[in-house]
Automatic annotation (TrEMBL):
Protein name: ATP-binding cassette transporter
GO molecular function: ATP binding
Domain ABC transporter: 464-686
Basic and acidic residues biased stretches: 26-62
Source taxon at top rank: Bacteria
SUPFAM superfamilies assigned: ABC transporter transmembrane region, P-loop containing nucleoside triphosphate hydrolases
Residue span, ABC transmembrane type-1 domain: 124-423
Cell location: Cell membrane
Membrane topology: Multi-pass membrane protein
Keyword field: ATP-binding, Membrane, Nucleotide-binding, Transmembrane, Transmembrane helix, Transport
Start and end residues of each stretch annotated as Disordered: 1-91
Length: 705
């Protein structure tokens, strides 16, 4: 029977070889919450993998984890949309404010009940060290006064005694600073570890790292946000808080010192006099106000420029990464000049942002340098009249100068840290943007308002059942609709259709990577699913690891892995199993697909999905590969997405998708009759042109006569 003569079966009809039309068993209705909680299909883990995971979990028990054991993950915060009456500029400002709030919603959890148990003790210890360190600063300040008073009075005994006291003071101050650095950097490291673990876990969960490519939002270059922006976002706040606390305590302490030492200053004015109480304090406040205000005015564009600079840097890294990953295709096409043009253009954006940022740094450096040069001189000039008239000792002048410098440093903390504050602001917003995109995907998974594909278990023994399955984009645009298919164990089903009809999207929905749509995808309770995409993923490391992936490299013996390579035609690589090389760049496209079939033979799944998994193989190699799979795994259920008609010989059913308005639809589900012998290309060409059929008819006529 020719393909044209095959009568299409009703969608969801009986499989090949079934004697009667299968009647579906009634399904028990489940609540929506139960359906959402059903697990999507994943390969079952072996005993060795579970043991390794348990061992790894035991080793990481001491590390901070994003969630306490046994406690469910908190739901994502509700999104906050700008008011409709806001102008675009006001809406953007509201969005940026919320981004910082969104960062702290997650970041403060480090000190919560689901956070790190050592977070609060370390933080308390850091605060205590800062307070004690300010006390040592005050002790050194008092030492300055006594030491210079002794010099002024030429008191040799006191000078020697104070010199001996100075060493313990310095040793204590240095020890406190070192301990403070340890606690500060430990908090930063553990906070970053905690947040990175939480963000990466959410990013990898439920295929969200893949789904982010399908939805709109400010989440480009997530790898740069997680690695670089998250580092800055967790390091800087600890520095800022400890710096602000130290500045506040130092300013409070030494303002009292300045007030006590300086007293009041009387200035003659037109036969009268003006008395300024605490003139050193007043001068310090005015001086700091001038420098801080200048910094704020000059650096008002720092945040925006830092954010743009970080974004252009991330885009530049992404372009370079794409060139490395697609080096073979670029080299074969001779696209070096075009790639160089694209790289130069992207790098030009980086340089322009750096040039703008350089101007900001120059202006802030001007203010900072002027402040640092004048700060030590101003108090001495102010105290000189009192010293010359004898109302202030040399020790008091030096103590006032030291205290003034400390107060000015405390008040000028913003001057010195404004660039870092701007950099943190930009990084926190970038990581918060990624969090918000993940929030949206997670809310869609939990909410009943969004159309979601349910995943469950079959109840009638079928290996796979698509029940009223519809696949849509995240905005509701239909891709595939009203799909009813039931596949029995051992069946081999070919999914066909024109390009763009949604075949690969349907496969992603079956695998649980595509969440949007309706209906359900149900698998047999004891199934093990294995995917073979068109582009085989080759991890870094040894060839043995690449063949065993996603299992560990030592799950199978070298002998068994070598046998699998022999079966798929890669026996010449057996001697290189332990070689650590860039295999993703070394192997050709056909070799990568053969290696993927070797993985399949090792894992021995119950159901395998082939998405153009033989497209890089020639027809002869493709036929041999399919024959090997059928011979080595006779009971495996196969779902293939392919364009080649030759693959029909290795399948028992063929379902066809056709593009329709509102989404592609299954238009036929037919049984395929396996060919007894394989025709070569010339024979098929002759058969298609009618020549071969005339020869067959002539032979039949001669036999009949």
């Amino acid at each position: 029977m020719s393909q044209a003569e095959r009568k299409p079966k009703p969608i969801g009809g009986k499989p090949n070889g079934a004697a009667k039309a299968r009647q579906k068993k009634p399904r028990l209705e489940k609540s929506r919450s139960e359906k959402r909680e059903e697990e999507k299909p994943r390969p079952q883990k072996s005993h060795e993998e579970k043991s390794r995971e348990e061992k790894s979990a035991g080793e990481k028990a001491a590390e901070p984890t994003p969630e306490a054991v046994g406690e469910p993950a908190p739901p994502p915060p509700e999104s906050v949309e700008p008011g409709p009456k806001l102008t675009p500029e006001e809406a953007e400002q509201a969005r940026k404010k919320y981004l910082l709030r969104r960062f702290w919603i997650s970041g403060r959890g480090y000190w919560g009940r689901r956070g790190d148990k050592l977070a609060l003790p370390f933080t308390f210890g850091l605060l205590v060290l800062i307070c004690v360190n300010v006390g040592f600063q005050y002790g050194i300040n008092v030492w300055n006064r006594k030491f210079f008073d002794a010099i002024e009075q030429r008191d040799v005994h006191t000078v020697y005694m104070l010199s001996a006291v100075f060493l313990p003071l310095v040793a204590g101050s240095i020890s406190l600073v070192v301990a403070q650095v340890y606690l500060r950097m430990t908090i930063q490291r553990r906070w970053r570890s905690w947040m990175s673990t939480a963000v990466i876990a959410r990013w990898l969960a439920s295929g969200r790292y893949y789904q982010l490519n399908l939805v709109a939002g400010d989440h480009t270059n997530p790898e740069a946000r997680i690695s670089e922006d998250l580092r800055i976002a967790t390091e800087s706040p600890v520095d800022f808080i400890s710096g602000v606390l130290h500045a506040f305590l130092a300013a409070s302490t030494f303002i009292v010192v300045l007030w006590t030492i300086g007293g009041a200053l009387t200035l003659p004015l037109d036969g009268a006099s003006i008395t300024i109480p605490g003139f050193l304090v007043v001068t310090a406040v005015i001086y700091a106000a001038i420098t801080s205000t200048s910094m704020v005015v000059i650096g008002r564009h720092f945040v925006q420029l830092s954010e743009q600079k970080n974004q252009t840097e991330a885009e530049f890294r992404y372009v370079l990464t794409r060139v490395r990953e697609n080096g073979e295709s670029i080299a074969l096409l001779g696209g070096e000049d075009e790639e160089r043009s694209g790289i130069d253009n992207t790098f030009g954006h980086v340089l322009r942002q750096w040039a703008l940022l350089t101007g900001q740094h120059m202006r802030t450096a001007l203010v900072s340098q002027v402040s640092s040069l004048f700060a030590p001189v101003v108090p001495i000039l102010l105290c000189a009249p009192k010293f010359l008239e004898g109302s202030m000792s040399l020790g008091a002048v030096m103590q006032a100068a030291s205290a003034f410098a400390i107060v000015q440093s405390a008040f000028g903390w913003l001057v010195d840290n404004y660039p870092r504050l701007a950099d943190w602001n930009a990084s926190a917003r970038r990581i918060a943007s990624l969090m918000m995109s993940l929030d949206g995907l997670e809310r869609a998974e939990r909410s009943e308002a969004f159309g979601r594909i349910r995943h469950g278990k079959t109840e009638d023994g079928a290996m796979l059942s698509l029940d009223d399955l519809s696949v849509t984009l995240n905005d509701g645009t239909g891709v595939v609709k009203e799909t009813e298919v039931e596949i029995e164990p051992g069946e081999r089903v070919l999914v066909a259709g024109e390009s763009g009809t949604g075949k690969s999207t349907l496969v992603r929905a079956i695998a649980g990577l595509w969440p949007w749509g309706g209906g359900s995808v149900d698998f047999h309770a004891d199934r093990r699913l294995f995917m073979l995409p068109q582009r085989s993923y080759i991890p870094t490391g040894t060839l043995r690891r690449a063949v065993a992936y996603p299992a560990a490299a030592d799950k199978w013996t070298v002998k068994k892995i070598s046998a699998a390579l022999d079966k798929v035609g890669l026996g010449y690589l057996k001697d290189r199993l332990e070689e650590d090389a860039p295999w993703d760049q070394t192997l050709s496209g056909g070799e990568k697909q053969r290696l993927a079939f070797a993985r399949l033979l090792l894992h021995e799944p119950d159901i395998v999905v082939l998405d153009e998994a033989t497209s890089a193989l020639d027809e002869k190699s493709q036929d041999k590969m399919m024959q090997t799979v059928i011979r080595q795994l006779p009971k495996v259920t196969i779902i293939s997405v392919a364009h080649r008609a030759e693959l029909e010989a290795f399948h028992s059913r063929k379902i066809t998708l056709e593009r329709r308005e509102g989404g592609a639809k299954l238009v036929s589900d037919v049984e395929l009759i396996p060919r007894k012998r394989k025709r070569n290309l010339i024979t098929r060409a002759l058969w298609g042109s009618g020549v071969q059929r005339r020869r067959e008819a002539e032979r039949g006529g001669k036999r009949g006569s």
